[in-house]
Amino acid sequence: MGSENQELRKAGLKVTLPRVKILQILENSERKHMSADDVYLALVESEQEVGLATVYRVLTQFEGAGMVTRHNFEGGRSVFELTPEDHHDHIVCTSCGKIREFFDEIIEDRQVEIAEKLGFRITDHSMNLYGICEECQAGS
Amino acid sequence: MGSENQELRKAGLKVTLPRVKILQILENSERKHMSADDVYLALVESEQEVGLATVYRVLTQFEGAGMVTRHNFEGGRSVFELTPEDHHDHIVCTSCGKIREFFDEIIEDRQVEIAEKLGFRITDHSMNLYGICEECQAGS
DNA sequence: CTAGTTGCAAATCATTTGCACTTGC
DNA sequence: GCAAGTGCAAATGATTTGCAACTAG
């Protein structure tokens, strides 16, 4: 259970209760993609209230440390996920909000080639598909 | 010059001064991608002040009519561009903000295949690369 | 001890909305 | 003339920040 402490130290962050708690939430939640508010609510439910401002600060620090990745999907708010070993992209259901991940070697390769051709040294990319998932197509 | 009026009527929008002005800005600006604030400032410069709220309203109406496309790049604010005939994606320089467009048939095809495989009826997608452009690599 | 961290409330930023006033047709 | 459109200011929602109180090492 102290594994979080190692991770935090490795990231050069002091081990504090809010940080440990937030890391646990991210690791144990069934939802892999959470907004700052989702994390905050999960914290409240688990009896460990932490200020929303701190949630934002900590998530931003985690992002800076590379532990967490921030996504800017359509609709304003950011969602965070533990930085995955294996890179992947997302497909978001615009009806129910479900997020599915995928990885496609061909697309990844093309992205690099394209960036090179245009003279860019690529640092990051986001590729998100938006649509209606099976259940929602059937549902409504 | 009255071509804007045609476009507006075709979109079912009453021809008003603010709408015509905003459409002209979008058509004539050398920057193809503008935030609501960029449009507002251009309006101010051209002596035709229009309320910022109206700029937002009009851009949203244009988007609804399909005349304009909204992009949510990293960093909060939305940028708009006249909906292009030919679909394309974007590569953004995180240093100077320059935006380059590109289109890749292979990627487009893969996106559709992937969405199908996952059971999604795709309605939209965004694929943005972020990096440092040649000039900025040389510059700093 | 003391620099780093947190909580809370106030501040920001982008965007939206309520409402009285104006304008296109 | 009247419904649609607009301006302005106030409301909103997400995120950030100032600052005094707290805590890890």
Q: In a few lines, what is going on in this structure?
A:
The structure is a homodimer of 140-residue chains. Chain A is an alpha+beta fold and 140 residues long.
- Whole-Å distance between the termini of chain A? 43 Å
Biggest sheet of chain A: strands, sense, closure?
A: 3 strands, antiparallel
Strand order of the largest sheet of chain A: 1-3-2
Average of per-residue pLDDT values of chain A: 92
Which CATH class of the largest domain in chain A applies here?
Mainly Alpha
Provide the domain count of chain A.
2
DSSP strand (E) fraction of chain A? 15-25%
Task: Note the total helix count of chain A.
Answer: 6
Question: What are the secondary-structure elements of chain A, in order, as H or E?
Answer: HHEHHEEEEHEH
What is the structural class of chain A?
A: alpha+beta
| Total E-strand runs of chain A | 6
Largest interface: A-B, 33 and 35 residues
- For this structure, the quaternary state is homodimer
How large, in whole angstroms, is the Cα Rg of chain A? 17 Å
- The assigned CATH architecture of the largest domain in chain A is Orthogonal Bundle
Name the shape of chain A in a single word: globular
Write down the CATH topology of the largest domain in chain A: Arc Repressor Mutant, subunit A
